[in-house]
Write a structure and sequence with these properties.
It is a single chain. This protein has 109 residues and is mainly α. It contains four helices and no strands. Helices cover 87% and strands 0% of the residues. α1 runs antiparallel to α2. It has one domain.
């Protein structure tokens, strides 16, 4: 699976679960996850065209989001936030694996 698809899938999960969390709780802070999801979704288009800057911004945003979701999810014992944390962590692992694969390909060439 390409990094752009992983980014778009992670964005969709964040948007859907964040909106569900907002509807369930009514707390405006639940809209942080959909905001991050929208940014990641918009970044997935330049990443599809091999834009390295957009890919690095997406990875940094995903790293920060992963830490934030795990911290808040464990602090509040909220399963929705923990699901978002696991999805962002999986996306981060895919990003790192893709970066390592591309580096090996450059070194082999």
């Amino acid at each position: 699976m390409g990094i752009a698809k992983v980014m778009a899938t992670n964005a969709a999960v964040l948007i859907i679960l964040g909106v569900y969390g907002y509807i369930a709780s009514g707390s405006p802070t639940a809209l942080i996850a959909p905001g991050i999801g929208v940014i990641l979704f918009l970044l997935s288009f330049p990443v599809k065209k091999d834009n390295k800057t957009a890919a690095h911004i997406g990875v940094i945003l995903t790293l920060i989001s992963t830490a934030m979701f795990f911290f808040i999810g464990l602090k509040r014992s909220n399963p929705i936030i923990l699901v978002m944390a696991v999805f962002t962590l999986l996306a981060l692992v895919f990003y790192i694996m893709d970066f390592m694969k591309r580096k090996k390909e450059r070194e082999a060439a």
